[in-house]
Structures are given as structure tokens and as C-alpha cells.
Amino acid sequence: MTETDLLYVLALQHIPNMGDSTAKKLIRHLGTAEAILKEKPSNLLKIDGIGKKKISEYKAEKHLKAAEAELNYIQQNKVNTHYFQDENYPEKLKHCFDGPVLLFSRGNIDLKNQWIISVVGTRKITTQGIAFCEKFIEELSVLNPVIISGFAYGVDITAQKAAIKHNLQTIGCLAHGLNQIYPKVHQKYVKNVEENGGFLIFGVPISLTVQIF
Predict the structure, then answer these.
(1) How many structural domains comprise the chain?
(2) What SS3 state is found at 66?
(3) Whose CB among 65, 75, 177, 197 lies 3.0–4.6 Å from 170's, allowing a Cys bridge?
(4) Bridge partner residues of 82 (DSSP)
């Protein structure tokens, strides 16, 4: 997608009450996010399922201003975008009517790998739990899967460190923008994760307008 297309999609996502399913419906009707934001309210209301509440603030200038800040961050920090109509969007998510309009990633993620295993669990993992998790990832390594977790304390970071140890791609799905890392003590693992996979979020690329999840 072009820079202009991305700008208007970001602005569209900034609109209150504009969920992913509604945004995709409007894009399919009008072609682009830019066309939506420049359309007359009366014409949008003719579309099935579009009420006044959903478009009550869609003309506000603040949406474009927020989008400009987000776009600037994307360009300066080499953030990858995955638009729901583009080839680099995960195939399985294309079949979800409420899948995110945009995904954002950083690192060397290969979203075409079909073997994906999510590993999550307690934040207060025991020594026995760590050993089990490490052994589990080791035995899975023969399948060369992508290990996905939340980059949090406990099971999450244990699984992702084990994935790196066995040269597996690992993806951290963050609950915030790419302009921060939580918990901060995991900052030391960021480089290794990005070299062996990366980080993925949906919503907005920076924690400027909304906290994800």
C-alpha cells in the first residue's frame, strides 16, 4: 500500500466505535480508507449496519493528526505493516471477518510458516516449570515451528528463549505499541528475538492513542 493509503487507514482506525469489521465493510464498499473519510455522512448511512454512532466523529481533524504521528514512527523505526488486502497479511486471518485491518511487526518474521504454536502460562513459573517448558520446545524443534508468546514474565519468556536456543523463529505478541517494551527487564532479549523472528501487534504502532488488548 502507498504512504497515503496507510495514512488514511491509520486515521480510520483512530475513529471511536470504528471496529475492524466495520472498517473492512466500509473499505470494501468505497475502495479505500481515504474515500471513506471524504465521503458524505448521508452516503455512509446508506450502507447496511452503519449507524450514526459509528461515524459520529469520523470527520474530526484529530484522526489525521494522530495518523501522521503514527506514520512518522513507522517510517523512522522500520516498522512493517500488514494490510488485510495485501499478500503479506497472514492467510488464516483473512478468513476472520473481524480480523485486524492492520498488523504491525518488527524484526524478521515469516508469517507464511504454517506450523505455529502458541505457548503461554503463569507469570510465576517454578524451576520445574522452566525445565518442562525448555524440554517441550526442544522436542518440538524437529518440526521447525514458529513459537509465539507474549514476551511477558514466566512461561512466555522461557518459551521464547528456548526457541532462540534451538534456532526456531519466535514472535512476541505485545500488549502495547512498538515504542516500548514491557517488562523493561526483557529489553535485553529484544535483539535476539528480532534476529530470530520479531514482535507483532495490532491496532496502532505506538502507544499514542489507545492501549492494545
Answers:
(1) 2
(2) helix
(3) 197
(4) 103
Residues 6 or more apart whose CB falls under 8 angstroms from that of 203 comprise 13, 100, 102, 210, 212
Give the burial class of 105: count Cβ atoms within 10 A of its Cβ; 0-12 exposed, 13-18 middle, 19 or more buried.
buried
User: How far apart are the C-alpha atoms of 20 and 85, rounded to whole Å?
Assistant: 13
**Residue 122: left if φ>0, alpha if ψ -120 to 50, beta else—which one?**
beta
> Residue 132 belongs to what domain range?
116-202
Check whether residue 68 and residue 129 sit in a common domain. no
- Rounded to whole angstroms, how far apart are CA atoms 129 and 4? 48
Instruction: In whole angstroms, give the CA distance from residue 63 to residue 200.
Output: 23
The pLDDT tens digits for 27-72 are 999 999 999 999 999 999 999 888 888 888 888 889 999 999 999 9
